[in-house]
Amino acid sequence: MKKLLIGVLVTGVLSSGVAYAASQAQSNTGCGLGAVLIGEKGNDSLLGQLAMTLLNGTSANQTFGITSGTSECKAPAKIVKNERLNEFVVANIDNLSKDIAMGNGESLDTMAELMGISIDKRAEVYSKIQANFANIFTSASVEAPQVVDNIAAIIQ
Amino acid sequence: MRHLRKGYGYKVLSIPLFFLFISLNLILTTPAIAKEDAYLDSLLKETEIRKLYSDRYWDVLLHYKNSISGKQSLVDSPVFFLSSDGKNNPKAEIEATIRALFMEDEMNDQHPRCRFVARYAWLKEVLNIDETRLPDVTCKEYNDAISRINPKKAVFIFPVGYMNSPASMFGHTLLRIDSSYQSKLISYAANYAAWANDKNGFIYAFKGLFGYYLGYFTILPYYEKVMEYNELEQRDIWEYELNLSEAEVRRMVMHLWELRDIYSYYYFFDENCSYNLLFLLEAARPSLNLTGRFHGWVVPIDTIRVVLDSGIAGAAEYRPAKATRIRYIASLMDEETQELTLKIVRKEIKPEELQRVSPEDKIKILDLSAEITQYDYGKKRMTKDDYQKQFLSILTERSRLGTTGDTAYNIPVPASPEKGHKTSLLRLGAGIKKNNLFYEAGYRTAYHALSDFDDGYIEGSQIVFLNTNARYYTKDNKVRLTDFDIIDIVSLSPGSIFFRSPSWKVKTGFTRKTISGDKEILIYQLNPGAGFAFENSVTGLTYCMFETNLNVSGSLKDSYAFGPGVSVGSLRLITDYWKINVSLKAMSFLFGEKHDIYEGRVVQSFKIDRNNTLKLDFGLGRVQNVHQDEMTLNWNHYF
């Protein structure tokens, strides 16, 4: 666990970037499961679709999301502040929960990297958190910071 | 309190005094100012002598293009230019920029040196500017951003069209900027898009065509873009690594920073997402001339070809859409386990109630259920509450099964988009119609037809813009226009137990048609249809459509003919070099000029190479009991 904490600390320090646009939380991110796939991009008419596609239109209110803004969410309590990890988990909680249940996947790899878990340790860590899925995702409304805390507690 | 306020008041008063002292000091030390003025003058003089305003890189950074009245920038945001004449005058702009570098700083992040970092970096290099002779400026926002992005490598990203939607076949392009992190999801993606909030398709189309939308560059975490394209819109993504050096990628990000909150008017066909993105590549490596290779229409796939031709792009990596993943996992399962999956998705059984199923099958069933549940939620087919509960119950059960078995799902990689045929088409051929020999020639502006080979395209999707064909009949020594299709779209979406989307078509334009006997007339037609399609190992991609057709021509009774009909057909790749398209059609024109039409066609395509095919078209037709049989052999060249 010491290693993990150091890793998190280092990544945290390295990534503690700018808070530009932090106040403009994205409309399609949230903190709990099921926060991700809500977008307002659907326009089902043929012409609407054609136009949308050619324009590759966007209605997001953020242009330079150097940080994607998780200010609405609580920060994980148990681990050292790691803004990028928290942002990633908030925005990717659905895919992350799926990867954890399946024991592999890109979102899981990303989380592991942001937590500073070395590559040779990952297989072991993954099967441990897969086996503890129910202790991590304790309810349908569990929020991302709590998930990070739960994972940290299990890896310890 | 009073006392405190008073004290504060003193402080406020003392500030102007302080400035007065400073300015007095400055006035007293005029030689210093004169010295800097002299430095500015020398820089301006050198710029003039070396004609830096006509340097290629200045054109790139300011997006200057040649126009009738000299150079003009494609950027429309006034704040992008430091000279009021900057949009049309590269010289005035470079002079204003150099002057601006000497602006006394009270604004740091807003200082032109922080705002236009790429311009400054370039000027500093070419003019060998001594930074110590410029005012002291700290660009905190920019420095924070660049350390956060930490640019190392760049990747050209191509999300293909939406599945089942030929209207979107053009695709899109963006750039990914990789840092030293292994994970690509937390890289940043640079994107150019129109700022559009309208809900109405007509307004969209109009504004997009005529430049009423503003286009902005954005930079967001790549996972946001993966979710948008792979998951929300079901578009496969192709990623082409670029061999740009770290210094070049940094220059790209610097230019991107300059373009923050800067707009250009967005035009569907030329100044679009893919075209504007090329400026970022040129900013990285000015010796590339990518934007100069397009005149008129810019199709995203063509920008990939241009980038590949320039030699900076490597092999493509594939990132399948969620729907692709669903189809693949389903393809590994038999009918019984597919049905069980559907039962879980429909909540007819609970995930923990899967009895008498092998652990391997159970894993696949639960994995597929999870994917479909996410897909359905993305399509807004379920409430958030329902989704959360169901998703969690599936995953909880899945987590008990470990990682044994085939869980990695190696989705086969299809041909990458640039492997497909090019988008314009020239056609030359000869044929026989009712014993009369004819020669024909045709041209199609874009893009892909059902009878073309599908490598790099979406199977079952046709989108044809401006297809023209003319024939010369030897018998009467006359040239006739036979077809002028303005648009001809077909979307065939094979259904499965997990996906059921309708198939549809729409065709409009001019065509030559026989109504009775030998009389051929040119008509205008509007021919929409809708139906369904399925995939079958014997007949290939098979479809059935109900259609209507409206014909308009002065030669028709009451100037029109209108009626319903039905068509069936199938498309099948026999070998990699041989494709057959069989179709049958019956139309009954019940209104206006009444007549019936029956038609059977077999089109065979033979691939010579990627951009050349031979097409043998054999048609049996009957209009009002008069046969209209014809056979044509065509050489098709894509360019």
Features:
heterodimer; A: 156 residues; mainly alpha; 7 helices; 0% strand; disordered N terminus; B: 639 residues; alpha+beta; 12-stranded antiparallel beta barrel; 7-stranded antiparallel beta sheet; 16 helices; globular
In short:
The complex is a heterodimer of chains A (156) and B (639). With 156 residues, chain A is an all-alpha fold. Chain A has seven helices and no strands.
Helices and strands in order, then pairings?
The complex is a heterodimer of chains A (156) and B (639).
Chain A lengths: L1 H14 L30 H10 L27 H20 L3 H9 L4 H13 L1 H4 L7 H12 L1
Helix pairs in contact in A: 3-4, 3-7
Chain B lengths: L1 H27 L1 H20 L6 H7 L1 E4 L2 E4 L16 H12 L10 H4 L1 H10 L13 H10 L3 E7 L14 E5 L9 E7 L6 H9 L3 E9 H11 L4 E6 L3 H13 L4 E4 L6 H12 L15 H10 L3 E7 L2 H10 L3 H11 L13 H20 L5 H16 L25 E9 L2 E13 L12 E13 L4 E14 L11 E14 L2 E18 L3 E13 L7 E16 L2 E12 L1 E2 L2 E15 L2 E12 L2 E2 L2 E9 L1
Antiparallel strand pairs in B: 1-2, 3-4, 3-7, 4-5, 5-6, 6-8, 7-9, 10-11, 10-23, 11-12, 12-13, 13-14, 14-15, 15-16, 16-17, 17-18, 17-19, 18-20, 20-21, 21-22, 21-23
Residue windows where pLDDT falls under 50 for at least 5 positions of chain A: 1-29, 37-43
The percent range for helix content of chain B is 25-40%
Q: How many β-strands of chain A, per DSSP?
A: 0
Largest sheet of chain A: none
- Strand order in the sheet with the most strands of chain B: 10-11-12-13-14-15-16-17-18-20-21-23
Ends apart, CA distance between termini of chain B: 81 Å
What does the radius of gyration of chain B come to?
Answer: 32 Å
What's the overall average pLDDT of chain B, rounded?
Answer: 88
Instruction: Work out the largest interface and the residue count of each chain.
Output: A-B, 68 and 80 residues
Low-confidence stretches of chain B: 1-32
Shape of chain B: globular
The percent range for helix content of chain A is 40-55%
* Oligomeric state of this protein: heterodimer
